[in-house]
Known about the structure:
Elements: H1 2-6, E1 24-28, H2 32-35, H3 40-49, E2 51-55, H4 61-65, E3 68-70, H5 77-90, H6 96-102, E4 108-110, H7 126-131, E5 141-145, E6 148-152, E7 167-171, E8 177-182, H8 183-191, H9 196-203, H10 207-219, E9 223-227, H11 229-232, H12 237-250, E10 260-262, H13 275-278, H14 290-295, E11 308-312, H15 316-319, H16 323-332, E12 337-342, H17 347-350, E13 354-357, E14 366-368, E15 375-379, H18 392-403, H19 417-431, H20 441-446, E16 449-450, H21 464-468, H22 482-486, H23 501-506, H24 521-524, H25 528-531, E17 534-539, H26 553-558, E18 564-567, H27 569-574, E19 582-586, E20 591-598, E21 606-610, E22 654-659
Parallel strand pairs: 1-2, 1-9, 2-3, 9-10, 11-12, 12-13, 17-21, 18-20
Antiparallel strand pairs: 4-8, 5-6, 7-8, 14-15, 15-16, 17-22, 18-21, 19-20, 19-22
Helix pairs in contact: 5-9, 5-10, 5-12, 9-10
Amino acid sequence: xxxxxxxxxxxxxxxxxxxxxxxxxxxxxxxxxxxxxxxxxxxxxxxxxxxxxxxxxxxxxxxxxxxxxxxxxxxxxxxxxxxxxxxxxxxxxxxxxxxxxxxxxxxxxxxxxxxxxxxxxxxxxxxxxxxxxxxxxxxxxxxxxxxxxxxxxxxxxxxxxxxxxxxxxxxxxxxxxxxxxxxxxxxxxxxxxxxxxxxxxxxxxxxxxxxxxxxxxxxxxxxxxxxxxxxxxxxxxxxxxxxxxxxxxxxxxxxxxxxxxxxxxxxxxxxxxxxxxxxxxxxxxxxxxxxxxxxxxxxxxxxxxxxxxxxxxxxxxxxxxxxxxxxxxxxxxxxxxxxxxxxxxxxxxxxxxxxxxxxxxxxxxxxxxxxxxxxxxxxxxxxxxxxxxxxxxxxxxxxxxxxxxxxxxxxxxxxxxxxxxxxxxxxxxxxxxxxxxxxxxxxxxxxxxxxxxxxxxxxxxxxxxxxxxxxxxxxxxxxxxxxxxxxxxxxxxxxxxxxxxxxxxxxxxxxxxxxxxxxxxxxxxxxxxxxxxxxxxxxxxxxxxxxxxxxxxxxxxxxxxxxxxxxxxxxxxxxxxxxxxxxxxxxxxxxxxxxxxxxxxxxxxxxxxxxxxxxxxxxxxxxxxxxxxxxxxxxxxxxxxxxxxxxxxxxxxxxxxxxxxx
Length: 662
């Protein structure tokens, strides 16, 4: 969620070919050696051209390959980043011109309201502001430079020469005066709370280490931050992302080869415009965030609830937080109908009223791209669909015409599903925008084709166009139209100061560090602090992609046919747990079981569960029965259908463990 707050985009990431171009790489909460194995050789190359530092509470596989491992307390990355930012600013290692031109750091903020000063509020600027023609999603803010107040143009990122530091008394249109101060001044003031000593106390990392890596990161540019799902899937993960974003921004490492901040989680990002197929012109969007569905409430949850659930390839009755809630609601009749598409007989299939046998990758056409690899690839059927299986397109077409015969016309009714798929792929390539210009179906039939970008050689360099061509932030986040996302950074720049009322009320107008569990577990159950003394964190297995192929006997053999949990020796000893013991993990919401691995690299106070195992291997108790879909209200502000909704906070979970005696 820090992405829309700060940059106005869904996400932006460097492709792995860019990793060796970084002068300094810091990896936080991303175990690339296990989750991005085909690309890790690029990370090893990055060690030859720069330095790779892994910041992680646990000695993970990626930490073992790094030049340096910095161990910190879980969920304290914001304090680390803010302590580093203070060092960079105090030592004058920041890129002044970059902050002036491409960020909100010079923007003036009213001390009385905490709101950014609007040009239309200022007596000497109102007429000029009224005459400026800007899109409705932009706002005219004010900066100070060359001894005068200046309207900040959100549509032109020309050099501003604006002051980064300073406070002023400004006459407003109603004749009153307001005291104003720059965002950068407020940031410096806030960072006074994050001295090296304070950052060390919060994080557990030595003060001298924090100071050293801050200087190294600022002087061995460009800086690349890799911010993983294990790190952001906490209640205040947005604060951590905003704080970590400060580091590449302060050092001017945005929009350059090898620099920036990257979030490698899943393969969700859409790389080109799909709206011609995804959004028929007569269609109507009616989206409910999944966390609202799980919680049976929220600002977009329908008054009469949701009675039917159609899903595919996701196994939510097992692999999503509160999987147990889905089972309870289905068993009680609250959810009246469940249909599932899949090529595996998953837990969700077992809980479904109807199962549609889906094709696998080798039985249908599909156009694919990933966040790490900006290539279009054509999946092609090696064999015809086996047995009763059908393509997802075929099933959707059949469902559509039964719901409303008029809808069949949108699904190429005169073509079989194979030919229709190729027609759709051809349509997508022709209407995909700049990224697919000149790419044809015949080209992708011959092999992978690199998507176009604004960067030289079509490299995937986030925000290259914004920095080199001074195009306002944000770039498009497909499939949403630009106005839907650009409104989150109305200055047309990278923004660290958020002045929506809820941000002000929560004291989060600038990124800060907040304690874990205070707004979740401890608020829901004050006794949780003593009853459940272990943080529950899941990690990916090397031998599967999330839960896909969890029933694959060969992959399970590589894991000894045993689900595993990892404990620090001290925590294990306190609970009389030895290596290979069968252990029950529990809290007030659920329980599961796995076999103990005693690992000194696992930080004390943490229980790590190797995710992906279906409930059938866990005595029908999903490990996700322990988690809770907490929703941070601030995230509701940034809802955009199909792109952003409240972030799942899987790791905001407390448990304890006990040995099972058979």
